[in-house]
Write a structure and sequence with these properties.
The protein has about 290 residues and is an alpha/beta fold. It has one domain: Vaccinia Virus protein VP39 (Rossmann fold). It contains 13 helices and seven strands. The N terminus is likely disordered.
């Protein structure tokens, strides 16, 4: 789905969640980030500057062919990676997408799991669910499949049964959560024994300078909520998952920097001389699995 919110350091978890919900409602209604993020820019929300949603998607690993076949409006430039590419989906699997937005990754996952598989998208924003559910008709017509559904819910409290999912995917959403450890505990809960998670997210390579950290926190929730890569790995492990792998992906930050995303320009202005945003912020691919026994 992606990440886009304005927040302040005094917000509680409930306040942060409501700010995110409001921001994504506006995105769903307008189909664009401009009205939500201006004048601060798209940031990790993508679709910034002269970079279109489709252009950004191709730069972070989606093929032009799969984007072309998606329902109109499913890709809103909210991705920071391609979790379906690293999920190694197989026919017959049940897949859960956290923060599914307009259904972008769900509609890509559906044909991979086939008629005997199932894809469940969960999103806490009713307007996003409305958009995704409207897109289902196009998906059914173009693929001949009826294997994608969307549920209202928060990723900290998933509306999914214990041990019912083969693969969990997520695209630049977990960083938005005010309680990320709880999200990872929920992922562990819903996965079957031996199940896997493949998520794209944002993280820090090293702490941002204090002045920039305050600026980011005031401007955009996803980078403000990003944690160090080492802390991220510890969080996933603490949830009981194993085989944890975190791979940094500089392409996303490079694309937004190259196309002069207003937020990234502002951050760069506050960094020490001789450093760049890519020295501090990165998108990541996260994979892990649940123990098969016990």
């Amino acid at each position: 789905m992606g990440c886009c919110s304005n927040s302040s350091s005094g917000n509680t978890a409930v306040d942060t969640r409501e700010v995110v919900r409001l921001g994504y409602s506006k995105i769903a209604q307008t189909g664009t980030l401009t009205s939500v993020t201006a004048p601060t820019g798209g940031g990790c929300c993508g679709n910034a500057g002269n970079l279109s949603a489709d252009d950004l998607a191709t730069k972070i690993g989606y093929s032009a062919e799969e984007i072309k076949n998606l329902p109109e409006g499913a890709n809103m430039g909210l991705s920071c990676g391609n979790p379906t590419a690293i999920a190694q989906l197989q026919p017959g699997q049940t897949v859960l997408d956290l923060g599914s937005g307009g259904g972008f990754d769900c509609f890509l996952a559906g044909p991979k799991v086939g008629a005997h598989g199932r894809v469940i998208g969960v999103d806490m924003t009713p307007d996003m669910l409305t958009k995704a559910r409207k897109n289902v008709a196009h998906y059914r017509q173009s693929t001949g499949l009826d294997n994608v559904e969307f549920r209202l819910g928060e990723i900290e409290h998933l509306p999914v049964a214990d041990a019912s999912v083969d693969v969990v995917i997520s695209n630049c959403v977990i960083n938005l959560s005010p309680d990320k450890p709880q999200v990872w505990r929920e992922i562990s809960r819903v996965l079957k024994a031996g199940g896997r998670v493949a998520a794209s997210d944002m993280a820090l390579l090293k702490p941002l300078p204090a002045n920039v950290g305050l600026l980011v926190e005031a401007m955009v929730g996803c980078i403000a909520g990003a944690v160090l890569v080492s802390d991220y790995e510890a969080m996933v492990t603490a949830a009981g998952l194993k085989n944890v792998s975190i791979r940094t992906k500089p392409e996303y930050v490079a694309a937004l920097s190259q196309f002069k995303d207003p937020l990234y320009v502002k951050i760069a202005e506050g960094l020490p001389a001789g450093t760049s945003i890519a020295d501090y912020i990165t998108s990541i691919d996260v994979t892990a699995s649940k123990r098969c026994c016990g």
